[in-house]
Amino acid sequence: MSCRIGLALGGGSARGWAHIGVIRALHEAGIKPDIIAGTSIGAVVGGCYVADQLDALEGFARDLTRRKVLSFLDFNFSGSGLINGNRLVDVLNERLEEVAIEGMARRFVAVATEIGTGNEIWLARGPLVDAMRASYALPGIFKPVQIEGRWLFDGALVNPVPVSVCRALGANYVIAVNVGAEYAGRGTVVPHVEPMGLEDLSPAEETAPEPEGLFARNSRAVKKLVQRQIFGRKDNSPGISRVMMDALNIVQDRISRSRLAGDPPDAIVVPRMPTFGLFDFHQAEAMIEAGRVAVQRDIESIKHEIEARRPAPRVTRPALAVARAV
Questions:
Q1: Phi, psi torsion values for 146, nearest 5 degrees
Q2: Which residue, 64, 242, 278, 297, has most beta carbons within 10 Å?
Q3: pLDDT tens track for 57-82
Q4: Residue percentage of the chain with pLDDT more than 90
């Protein structure tokens, strides 16, 4: 039996661009995974990779600016998510609209969570774009996706780094990529914290009036409101989207540590990205490089371990006869 390599790509929002660098570095080393499982942004990168659209995704990521990121956020103030996500879906559909998961050359699974039951759903057939959307549908941020009668959202709530999926699909060497480990940190108990005052705030920031409403007619005011909700305020107080994302990332980090301890991968890649936040999609170039460097640190040991898992070549009878004659 040959060594089947699995690649488990974890969630982590914008930090998931590092997955692109990881895949590039593995290919440069001659390692091409047979099975790919992805959660959230890991499902997007993994799906594009299996569909041979990684070049297009990388070009899209490197071209992003903060303004372009905001332009893709079609806000929705009346539904089950802050963002409709239709503009992002249009981008994915440009190249992947006709792609079905079961028709791709290699095994691929996107992980999602079922609303109501909390079931971990493995999406291994059907339209690739729908599976990606379900896997990255952050609760409260993106609208949930209905697939085969189930309402689904972000898979990071149940399986942030899907090593178990790769194992179940027959991988006997699994490389896990955890892009959220450094962001959440280890966490500790702080017994007492002194209250913070407003000494560092300028009078203008203290008294700055808020927009009169979410549906204010002044487009500049609305744009400023949206920017504060996504990137936070000048006084470092977080916007609602950052609060939700950070809360989810802390939960994801705790679940990741528990699941990776119970089902450890054969190799784990942790890109060093301490300064990048979950909404820094416009920092793709640096994060892709961080993924590449993370693989290069351990590539020799990974190659050695994979080679050790490969079965020894079978010696045929004619070859044995020649060996005896010599």
A1: -95, 125
A2: 278
A3: 999 999 999 888 887 776 665 555 55
A4: 54
- Selected residue with higher pLDDT from 185 and 28: 28
> 130 with 147: CB under 8 angstroms?
yes
Q: How far is CA 298 from CA 8, 27, 271, in A?
A: 16, 14, 11
The first and second tokens of residue 163, run together, are 């090593």
Catalytic annotation present for 78: no
Burial class (CB in 10 A: 0-12, 13-18, 19+), 162: buried
**Active-site residue, from 13, 40, 135, 256:** 40
Residue type, 71: S
Catalytic residue among 34, 130, 135, 154: 154
Q: If we measure between CA atoms, which residue out of 103, 87, 120 comes closest to residue 47?
A: 103
CA distance 221 to 215: 10
Task: Using CB atoms within 10 Å of the CB of residue 245, give its burial: 0 to 12 exposed, 13 to 18 middle, 19+ buried.
Answer: buried
User: For 125-171, what is each residue's pLDDT tens digit?
Assistant: 999 999 999 999 988 778 899 999 999 999 999 999 999 999 999 99
**What does the alpha-carbon distance between residue 278 and residue 251 come to, in Å, rounded to a whole number?**
14
Tokens 């060594």 -> residue: 3
Using CA atoms, how far residue 30 sits from 184, 258, 303, 306, in Å, is 32, 31, 9, 11
Give the three-class secondary structure for 61: helix
Annotation says 237 is catalytic: no
Provide the terminal-to-terminal Cα distance of the chain, rounded to the nearest Å: 30
Secondary structure of residue 197 in the 3-state scheme = coil
Tell me how long the chain is: 326
**Helical segments of 97-239, H only:** 128-136, 163-168, 181-184, 203-207, 219-231
Q: Which of 33-42, 79-88, 182-191, 310-319 has the highest mean pLDDT?
A: 33-42
At 8, list the tokens.
């488990």
